[in-house]
Amino acid sequence: MAYFEHEGCTLHYEEYGHGEPLVLVHGLGSSTLDWEKQIAELSAHYRLILPDVRGHGRSDKPREPYSIAGFSADLVALLEHLNLSRVHLAGLSMGGMIAFQFAVDQPGLLKSLCIVNSAPEVKIRSANDAWQWFKRWSLMRLLSLEAIGIALGGKLFPKPEQGELRQKMAERWAKNDKRAYLASFDAIVGWGVQERLSQVACPTLVISADRDYTPVALKESYVKLLPDGRLVVIADSRHATPLDQPQRFNQTLLEFLTAVDTTTQDH
């Protein structure tokens, strides 16, 4: 367990393995535990760095509004703290949004980018969008974190044999700080960098579950805006692909990273 300070906030991160640095950023209401099924395999090849986003896990939960740009700035501070010049960066869900923000703000700090079940914007464009977000926003304020965790577990891991994953999800969600969780949720709505995707200079892999919340077609449309983007769809998976299809996920990410590192060495 390691910590660093940024803007008066103490932030937690974990490190495993050696080699080229690979940073993995978790999703909303989660923590470094999003990546528990990646650590052993990925740290055999890379120096794995797993931060807890501000307001999450073992990081401080300051009572203030959060923003995706602010989360990205925390990530820049972590790289400075570790004296890292360029890294591979992967993010899941909200972590993917943070990674997109980082990629357009700090293209020179990235060797590669991997976006998992995420998007470069969350814009409310129609009455239906507004209604869907309002419903989610209201439920999050009304329901206990335990209730949200149980509901999410059932949605993310519906198979009979996924009981252990459902249980873990419910337990982990209940440990969230509700105010920090809601502040992070508020940071997502209305955020977007889609119009800046041409600034993402590095090779970019977008991984989409076939049954993610947002359709594969959405990922196909924004991958076209990336100068060096490619899409891989993982079958029989939902929003938490690194947990429900870890072997496929690890293999897909490692193949991409190896190709990037090989190309870089050739130049």
UniProtKB/TrEMBL annotation:
InterPro entries for the chain: AB_hydrolase_1, AB_hydrolase_fold, AB_hydrolase_sf
Signal peptide, first to last residue: none
GO molecular function: 3-oxoadipate enol-lactonase activity
Limits of the AB hydrolase-1 domain: 21-134
Any Pfam family the entry gives: Abhydrolase_1
Keyword Hydrolase: yes
A cellular-component GO term for this protein: membrane
Keywords of the record: Hydrolase
EC number assigned by the record: 3.1.1.24, 3.5.1.-
Entry-linked PANTHER family: AB HYDROLASE SUPERFAMILY PROTEIN YCLE, MONOACYLGLYCEROL LIPASE
Name of this protein: Aminoacrylate hydrolase RutD
Encoding gene, per UniProt annotation: rutD
